[in-house]
Amino acid sequence: MTTEATLEPTEPPTGSAPLLTASDLRVSFPGRRGADPARAVDGVDLDIRRGEIVALVGESGCGKTTLARSLLGLVPPTSGRVTFDGRPLDYRGRALKAYRKRVQLVLQDPSGSLNPRHTVYEAVAEGLRIHGYGGDERAAVGAALSRAGLRPPERFFLRYPHELSGGQRQRVVIAGALVLEPELIVADEPVASLDASVRGEILALLLRLREDLGLSALVVTHDLGLAWNIADRVAVMYLGRIVETGAVEDVLTAPQHPYTQALLSVLPEAEGEPVVLTGEPPDPSRVPGGCRFHARCQVLASGEAERAGVAQDCRTKDLPVLSGAGGTQVACHWAASRG
Question: Can you give the residue ranges of the ABC transporter domain (predicted)?
Fold first, then answer.
């Protein structure tokens, strides 16, 4: 199940304490014109261990980018807690600045995240200057560009974004994150804007950074093929909650949740007929009762849930928040009835 040449992730350390933990995280935004608040993230537990790559997967609008921004400290949670390296995230200015040095964001569109008036050198050095770096700036910028695969780095110092290919621009963005020597990067659709020929190179780079630097990563994507290529674990998100999680091979070869099954069914290499979900994801200000996927669920619509004796539960009985720890877990009445 690959969209690029299969990559070989190295195994992350097992049994170690999580580097980052989200505990019952919730993020709500005011509703429009007096409507109920939009529950963009509605109860999420998630762990990321040192040296681990976790893929957060789901359709547009499911809450995955809001969750990622909350983990970065860019969006304070309405309730719940983010813990990093054993300490709760402190949202005060100095503490948050120190946290953002250790946890860096890589955006999906390098053209939008790079200032067209800044050279590559200035783009990569910006983080050092913000954080008051006292060492050899030129050496640090050169080392970051080299790690990101732009060699020799001096050749790129005075170039501008428009003089680079899409893959080179994405490497500059990655170098801008690496220059601060973070422990975790959050990559939001890191290859979505790239040609297929370049995607595998960037994914291989992320895997190599994990191997060489012990870097952890949360990769936010709608692409399950990407998750297969790069992740150790996958968390499938729907309408503000994680509905299935586990080792990437377990989830993507034997998906239990109907939503995960539907997402996988439309990949080019999938066998059988694709599952076409009806309608759009519900409005997060009007989360349906019962299983939040039930209005679009192919298992419920086909009568299979009725035959399993869980159709009423699907429509009326809420499901618990999944644990953020390892191990395959699924929030689905029908899947639970089969196991």
Answer: 20-264
